[in-house]
Amino acid sequence: MAEEPLAQQLTVLGSLLAEVDNRLSRAPVAPVGLEDLKQSVDNLRTSMWAILSAGHGLSAPARVERLKLKRAIEGLAAIQKDLAARPRAPRYPEHAELSAIAKAVVEQIGTLP
Q1: Residue 5 lies in a domain
Q2: How far apart are CA 108 and CA 87, in angstroms?
Q3: CA 20 to 30 Å from 67, out of 23, 48, 60, 78?
Q4: Is residue 1 scored above 60 in pLDDT?
């Protein structure tokens, strides 16, 4: 894979990650190495934000912000779906933290022009 052009490597990597995601969704327990993969993906995401920010001139900050917003929307939609599917699920401390942050974000969005 190291000899392939970068664009081709990105395509292959995207396919591999989709396959891993599919297999993980069917796994009965978290497999060994999953935490290491998570860390690698997190590091890659951080690098991609930096590259996207630098690579598109004056429109870069807006592009990155919109990508982050789309990612947040996807995450919140998944959380909302989970909560709707399990209305009697236990309440965790993270629920209160998410609620507080969500309220603050709603207020901040309300002040945007």
Answers
A1: no
A2: 28
A3: 23
A4: no
